[in-house]
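#struct-pred

JT: dropping the chains for the assembly here, can someone run the whole complex?
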Amino acid sequence: MVQISSIAITENKIPETSFTRKLRRADSFTNLAVTVSEHALSDLPAFNNKMQTGIFIGTAYGPLATNFAALDTLLDNGEGQMSPTLFSHSVFNTAAGYISRLFEINGPAYTFTNYSWPFFRALEEGNAAINRNIIGRAIIIGVETYSQVLTDAGHRLIKKNFPVLEPGAVAWILEGEAETADNCICLLNSVEFEEKPARPEDLISPHPLVHALSVSRTARQLKHSGNKTKIWSAEELFGKARVRLQSP
Amino acid sequence: MGCISGAGEDVQTNWANLCNGVVRCRTVPEWLFPSTLPYPVFVAPAVCCHPEQRKYFPHLRERPEEQINRTILLIINAAVQALIQAGLAPDNLKGKRVGMIFGTTVGCNFNDENYYSAWLRGLKPDLEPVKRYLTGNIASALQTFSGNRGPTAVITNACASGTDAIGLARNWLLDNRSDIVIAGGGDELSRIAYNGFSSLQLTSRKPCLPFDRDRDGLNLGEGAGVLILESEHHCHERGCSPLGWLQGYGAAADAYHPTAPHPEGRGLKSALDMALKQTGKKQKISYVNGHGTGTPSNDPAEMNGLKSLFADHKEITIVSTKGITGHTLGAAGAIEAIFTLLSLNKRFTPGTAGCRHPDSRLALKPLPQGESRKLASPLGITASLAFGGSNSALILEGAG
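RK: done, full complex below.
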């Protein structure tokens, strides 16, 4: 069974990082993904087999604000004058590229994009990759930065009770049994989720990081709760998800 | 398998144009988006929902076609071709766990400039583009339109997305997460990506010249490629013969540069290593469909990565097919997997369109334009390199 060795949560602001200089061109999406990974990895012993570490990012909107910033340079400056830096950072897997480079990780790196359960898609694939012995350690990341364009559209679509879209990120470090050490927060027994057809207004609320944050807190609490197992579940208009966690 | 690209509206036409070296590179047509830039592109045929597609995706009727983005229409077109060839009628999918996994880059972005421009001016534009964006996740949309159940995923690994989608589909089957997987990739041409690639100085003013000494950049293209994957047991149970087997899949990161590949093809070598270990048949590889974009940096990096594994391998033939499709981004890996399987099944490959003078500085020699070769075995590779340093490779075996 796969163990959760570390969990880091970042809400609202980008935390301190040792990569300040190397992130100077990066946008907030990449900054959040890198810094939350750094914090999740900071309490763990070094993992020397860089091919044996995989990166699995789940996001609903990706670097949406950067996409618009790149578009601004096209609209303002005209054809052929788009900012190459902004354009390259608007590509969804840029954050995965930064993480692999800054942490010298050579294993597989994926970015999954989905409006309903993005973190859980990344979690399932990371869990599966360890169970299939493709890798021994997985960095699972949920990250969102949103955009004012999306916020305004959300308010107009939903009219009332539209949630505040705060940037944030979650990172879990999963490890296989061969790698397990003293760092076990809990064991990841299973990840299940399903999507069902939904209207646009149902997909935009609640915001996609809500469930990633919630399951992260549940996993953290399990260690100290005295319970042997805990099933975290959520049901929304776009489907349902369930994660079974087990005490070490 | 199903395919649509600038080289044609189906697999047969794509293959025929590949064999005949037909290059349909052109200026950007006004109906796609206005442009005065001098970089030609490969444009896929216009797509619309026809009755056959509505049989497989009956809920398409509930959404006006203009509310569906072009990437999804391209994928649906390719998916229906593939399902028909696989002998899977819509009823055959009922009650099955039908996985849907696709790669894309442009297809996941909000690209509606009119909406955005109006919003910038403080207006409240019609929300239709936002609704199209929020219902535009390819895999979720196809699942909604089909009414099938099963896992869905969209991979946004830039230009390796299509290859990764097919590779992860294999894992879904091996892990018994799906009975059948509809896998591939798709991307439409967009003004933003077109301008982005040209601002990065990666696009050529001429039809691209992969592996050629005079290469100076890529041509963007659009299209979709879809494969139907199922376990051998499932395939035999329904009395069908496979077109081939997906024998291995590997993915690895360069950990080197945001947009440029590692010069020695480090990540590609690792991805190939991982995939080849699953087959144990490295010596039997006869064909490589390379990423071969025609950019100054991609081609040597790719050849260096291949050489590190195949330096003494005399029987291997390396080609790029981007000279007839352009670089279709998230679709590229899937379209090239289809070309790979076609070549392996026919035990034949045409040379690389655009490669008239193979670059002698490349670590391995590609098969140039105007030449063709019989393949020594039905085992081959398709490989993709991407922004962000993603690399992935599939090992395919043709059924012959």
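JT: nice. The first strand of chain A starts at residue 2 and ends at 11. Chain A has a mean pLDDT of 93.
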